[in-house]
Write a structure and sequence with these properties.
The chain has 16 helices and 18 strands. The chain has 460 residues and is an alpha/beta fold. The strands form five sheets. Strands 5-11-10-9-8-6-7 form a seven-stranded mixed β-sheet, with helices on both faces. The radius of gyration is 23 Å and the shape is globular.
Length: 460
Amino acid sequence: MVITMEAVVSLRVMKPSLHRTNRTFRAAPFASVTSAAPASADTKLGPGSLGHRTQPDFPILHQELNGKRLVYLDNAATSQKPTHVLKALQNYYEAYNSNVHRGIHYLSAKATDEYELARAKIANFLNAGDCREIVFTRNATEAINLVAYSWGLANLKQGDEVVLTVAEHHSAIVPWQFVAQKTGAVLRFVNLTEDEVPDVEKLREMLSRRTKLLVVHHVSNVLASVLPIDQVVRWAHDVGAKVLVDACQSVPHMVVDVRSLDADFLVASSHKMCGPTGIGFLYGKSNLLSAMPPFLGGGEMISDVYLDHSTYAEPPSRFEAGTPAIGEAIGLGAAIDYLSGIGMQNIHDYEVELAGYLYDSLRSVPNVRVYGPAPSNSNYRAALCSFNVEDVHPTDIATFLDQQHSVAIRSGHHCAQPLHRYLGVNASARASLHFYNTKEDVDDFIRALTDTISFFASFK
């Protein structure tokens, strides 16, 4: 495919139906492995790396697009799914598809057991004290809305303060705007330091007895910064505030221990941790969940229903109205099995090295501006880089990388418009990694990006 000058002009208005025109797909050769990496995974980036050993477990990556190997670097948006998860989903629908908690026949009992086993797996994965502290939701966004409408409306009043940072995802901002409008509570936002990290010292100063809730991410999906959540939680608790942690970008990549962090609420999403879409979860301390009213009404969340009133089940059932995403929950349980088989510390250690390699490689490309802090011995940077190229729109970059090089990255505001406005840009491009990515993936991306920049520079 040859891109002409006319095509350059139209890249940003290209319709999705044109985006895949005349593209060819075929299987790409991969060395086979018998299982995920062992618990003692080698963190080096060479041929025996964790990425090389696990990449063959992901069928979607075994393809070529227009004669080029697919390089998937959009993991902060969604992760790919290993065969282990795909088989678990297939097995549920083929062998014991049934509703849960309602039937006494074998299929229903089997489905119920596997559904509740998935809940127990999440609790163990996070080191929660009780599996009843895990509530299944449609996604992390619904989990945050659950806290906002159930805890927030019941506990916030005129003049109370909710503290957030300008780097929060839209799903962690908008629900609290709704609640603030209804209750008269005030939202206060923490800005960034000169190193482009949320200013935790300013956050500490902002906390007061008026603060009733702190809503904060663990890892930024734009800046790649990692906040000291354990310290932040202690500061909030010192003034009597509760803490909700958005862990969507941390739970899939590192050990997250909710009892150690002492967070009151924590949310994460299955599809970012090698599980299916359509399901996420809320962790909440037992005493808080027990005091919260239901979020949705319907079947399953009740104790007794009368014509004039109803009584409600204990958590977590109280917050899981209707038929849940059964297959998706079971698939999430399978994903946790897969991740646990590798070891989250092994994943973290490998990604630290891969993240540094991505950052250094991208910084070496002329006219590229990478957002967020530089990695250092005291400052871990997550395995993603949001960036812009001088005089080239990020959507043009992403489109050219995709169509000419089969490299998949993200462009846009990444559901973080306030942060992009603070940085003085409308959008950015983002390359994000997971443990099944390799040094070669980064190298292919950098070569493709260099070619992309040269292409657009030729028209100046």
